Amino acid sequence: MKARVIFSVLALLLAPAAYAIDYSAIPETGKVSKAPVGSTVTIQGTGKFGGEYQNVFRVQPDGSLKFITQYPINTNDN
Q1: Is 13 part of any domain?
Q2: What does the angle CA 62 – CA 72 – CA 65 come to, to the nearest 5 degrees?
Q3: How far apart are the first and last CA of the chain?
Q4: Exposure pattern of 21-34 as b/e (b: 16+ CB <10 Å)?
Q5: pLDDT tens across 33-55, in order?
Q6: Does residue 44 lie within any of the structural domains?
Q7: Rounded distance between C-alpha atoms, residue 54 and residue 58, angstroms
Q8: 69: domain range?
Q9: How do beta strands 40-46 and 65-72 pair?
Q10: Is residue 8 assigned to a domain?
Q11: pLDDT tens string for the chain (78 positions)?
Q12: Cα–Cα distance for residue pair 68/62, rounded to 1 Å
């Protein structure tokens, strides 16, 4: 019984979460020059398994983009 509980806990800890960020869908970003510092920029990306995502970045003082979050795009037509 104890081994079964430990196995179940380990399985939960090692399984990827359904809402995990797909880092393969985050595009390489350069710097922006016209967006105000602190504003957000949304860039669409495609993951390695074909899923589409909206990636949200915040503009840093040097014009670089800092990744904030990612939202999956539902492409089902059902």
Answers
A1: no
A2: 5
A3: 44
A4: ebeebbeeeeebee
A5: 888 999 999 989 888 888 899 99
A6: yes
A7: 13
A8: 21-78
A9: unpaired
A10: no
A11: 555 544 454 455 554 445 567 777 777 888 888 889 999 999 898 888 888 999 999 999 999 999 999 999 886 655
A12: 17
